[in-house]
Design a protein that fits this description.
By secondary structure, the chain is α/β, with parallel strands linked by helices. It has helices at 30-45, 67-76, 81-91, 108-111, 142-150, 152-161, 167-172, 185-197, 201-213, 216-234, 237-249; strands spanning 5-11, 14-19, 51-56, 97-101, 104-106, 118-122, 126-128, 178-180. A hairpin with a 2-residue loop joins strand 1 and strand 2. It is globular.
Length: 250
């Protein structure tokens, strides 16, 4: 694991994976993506682990992709594929994943919730999928999964306008199971993970596989299609202008 991804076992059968760049609101750079991929693979390979909790350090889930990495990938054409590797890893993970979101869950920080089996958010959490405003397009299978769970009108609102929304809207859209008191998301996620870990593991794994069976091929195809368009958009004048405006503002 990298120091930007922490992996621990807070309870028997439960692996907690924490995105750990609190000074950058846990923005995901290439090292962090690789750490997440490795942590998910290790949890899947460990027979003693029955459920995974995914969270962020410092009261923040993740502010999404590191814009500096984005800008570099756009300029060099190298590095953007690691995010797709992570999305493939989380969408095909065998063990149940329970997310705990506090603070910001932006971009891929929102879309990765579509691949978690359960998710909880504190009352102060903020969600946003700002792909269009960055000159980009949806990613993570969100153009398929979000209309499926939230309906086409709500999906268009959240993906096309890209506005900030709170945990109540996230729950209504099917992104999270429940809203906790601020700071309570991790405790709720750990409680559910412990409950899952206490159940017959093969039955849990089979149930997860059956739940995903109907959409697995479509999700994989959509992630690939979105990734091709996303890569093209990264090089676009619109995206370059948006990145420059963001970096200059900082």
């Amino acid at each position: 694991m990298t120091e930007t991804v922490l992996s621990e076992t807070p309870a028997e059968g439960v692996r907690q994976i924490t995105m750990n760049r609190p000074d950058r609101r846990n923005a995901l750079d290439r090292a962090t993506y690789q750490g997440l991929i490795d942590a998910l693979a290790a949890a899947d390979a460990d027979a003693s682990i029955r459920a995974v909790v995914l969270t962020g350090a410092g009261g923040c889930f993740t502010s999404g992709n590191d814009i500096k990495d984005f800008a570099a990938a756009a300029a060099t054409g190298v590095g953007a594929e690691i995010a797709i590797d992570f999305l493939t890893a989380i969408s095909t993970a065998k063990k149940p994943i329970v997310a705990a979101a506090e603070g910001f869950a932006v971009g891929i920080g929102t879309t990765m919730l579509l691949h978690c089996d359960l998710a909880f958010a504190g009352r102060g959490a903020s969600f946003r999928m700002p792909f269009v405003s960055l000159g980009l397009c949806p990613e993570g299978g969100s153009s398929y999964l979000l209309p499926l769970i939230a309906g086409s009108k709500r999906a268009a609102e959240l993906l096309m306008l890209g506005e900030l929304f709170g945990p109540e809207v996230a729950q209504d859209a099917g992104l999270i199971n429940d809203v906790t008191e601020e700071g309570g998301a991790l405790a709720a996620a750990l409680d559910k993970a412990k409950a899952l870990a206490a159940l017959p593991p093969q039955s849990v794994a089979l149930t997860k596989a059956l739940l995903k069976r109907g959409s697995a091929a479509a999700v994989a195809e959509t992630i690939g299609t979105e990734a091709r368009h996303f890569g093209e958009r990264l090089k676009s004048a619109e995206a370059q202008a948006a990145f420059m405006a963001f970096l200059t503002k900082r």
